[in-house]
Amino acid sequence: MQKLIVANWKMNPETAEEAKKLFDSVKNGVKKVKNIEVVICPPFIYLPLLKGLALGAQNVFYKESGAFTGEVSPLMLKNLNVQYVILGHSEARKYLNETNELINKKIKEVLAVGLKPIICIGEKEGEDKNKVLQEQLKECLKSIEKKEFEKIIIAYEPVWAIGTGKNCSIEETMNSVLLIKKIIADLYKKEIAEKIRIIYGGSVNGKNSREYILKGGVSGLLVGGASLDVNEFTQIVKSVD
Ligand code: 13P
Questions:
Q1: d(CA 171, CA 94)
Q2: DSSP 155-220
Q3: Which pLDDT score, from 0 to 100, does residue 142 have?
Q4: Which atom of ligand 1 is nearest to the CA of 167?
Q5: 71 Cβ contact partners less than 8 Å away, ≥ 6 residues apart
Q6: Distances 78 to 116, 117, 168, 223 between C-alpha atoms, Å
Q7: pLDDT given for residue 1 in this prediction
Q8: Catalytic one among 135, 157, 191, 232?
Q9: DSSP 123
Q10: Is the peptide bond prior to 117 cis by the omega test (within 30 degrees of 0)?
Q11: Is 150 one of the annotated active-site residues of the chain?
């Protein structure tokens, strides 16, 4: 299975021109990589402008169309050739008060139109990781059909590691991957847990990226800050190829 390196640009950059420049430079920088799927998740408004690498959105609504002012539907994304959607990011949970119940609705609609959800889970500083991950996985994955799991990606993003420079140790990442697999095996089936793709996010850079793939038990990375720097991001991608 190809490794997945996902760039979450968050609410950056400020202009379409900068977005195109960043995208084209990344595209150029990674054109020789073979074993990696590079996914760029820019703000919604830049999605139609960017072509040549896989695209993801940073959020979505849970209906196809209708009177939902300010929202974007999974179908609209699909029609723009978007393939992935980040859901349940800790910033959406914090600033938009997204709950596991809402995230579950979004996951279902995203799967219904054939997009792949990247479901973010992770504990805050001082929280009981086991309890938080159990709750998030149980509620976010509630009544999702087993056959859908091949499209699902779980992103383990401990909140304390996001944008802080304090990346999660390789050992703790590995333990978290095992924990996530165990929770999914208990909720569903061992085979599903074994196959599900789990990626890591939180202060990933060109120096620490390789270790996560080699020893952290993850099949990819979700990169925030470092994805806005062409050289750093290209280095991350190449380091895991
Ligand atoms: P940083 O890589 O900036 O820590 O952000 C991680 C993240 O939130 C990716 O979704």
A1: 27
A2: EE--GGGTTSS-PPPHHHHHHHHHHHHHHHHHHS-HHHHHH-EEEEESS--TTTHHHHHHHS--SE
A3: 97
A4: 4
A5: 60, 61, 63
A6: 10, 12, 33, 23
A7: 78
A8: 157
A9: P
A10: no
A11: no
How close is the Cα of 139 to the center of ligand 1, in Å? 23
Residue to mutate (ligand 1; options 153, 162, 200, 212; most atoms within 8 A of CB): 162
Cα 87 from Cα 60, distance rounded (Å): 8
- Ligand 1 atom nearest the C-alpha of 161 is 4
pLDDT digits (tens, 9 = 90+) for 10-64: 999 999 999 999 999 999 999 999 999 999 999 999 999 999 999 999 999 999 9
How close is the Cα of 104 to the center of ligand 1, in Å? 22
Residues with CB under 6 Å of ligand 1 are 8, 89, 157, 162-163, 201-204, 222-226
Helix axes of 100-112 and 129-140: crossing angle, nearest 10 degrees:
40
- Tokens found for residue 30: 């990674």
Nearest CA to ligand 1 atom 7: 224
- Candidates 225, 232, 172; CA nearest to 202 is 225
Average pLDDT, the chain: 97
CB 97 within 8 A of CB 59: no
